[in-house]
Design brief:
0% strand, 2 domains, Single alpha-helices involved in coiled-coils or other helix-helix interfaces, 10 helices, elongated, AhpD-like
Length: 193
Amino acid sequence: MRKSGEEKKVNTVAKPVIAPVNPEEAPAATTNLLAEIERSWGQVPNLFQTVACSPTILEITWQHAKAQSHLQLAPRHREAIALRVAQLNRCDYALNRHTVLGRRAGMNIEEILKCRQGISTDTQEQALLALATKIFKDHGHNAGFVLDVAREVGLSDAQIIEVTALVACHSLTHYISSLAAIDVDEMIQCDKE
């Protein structure tokens, strides 16, 4: 029985709308990809388990994730962009995941919160965040000024293309995460404590 003035606690965690795939019930091609992801990362994030219902999208999502380590952009800058785009897309799953990955890339909590808002004290990182924001909001149109600033701080055309690709690829996974109501990964919950 509740005491006077005590509010009933409500479970606000939504059940996933699209259930993660059980690897034991998946086709061989899907099982092989999930096994590769687990070997690489030590676990299969819930996003990958969920997109595994479409083997083609699982392959695309995994290739995108693997390709990031080969980009010219530094890991910290990649995470800054991921945080900004996750904030713009209002994707809780990605905000949680990239907060942990941002910490691993050397960001402190204040820097992570500022990146989410598109702010950095580092000139090059600020140019990257402004470019990512402009690409997201205007779909690449009318980016002249932010492109000029990006080039002034030393970003190459390859890095500018990488920012564009990261905005698009992250948005795809954010849409899926939000639509499917994917649960935050256990490793993220443990890492935040």
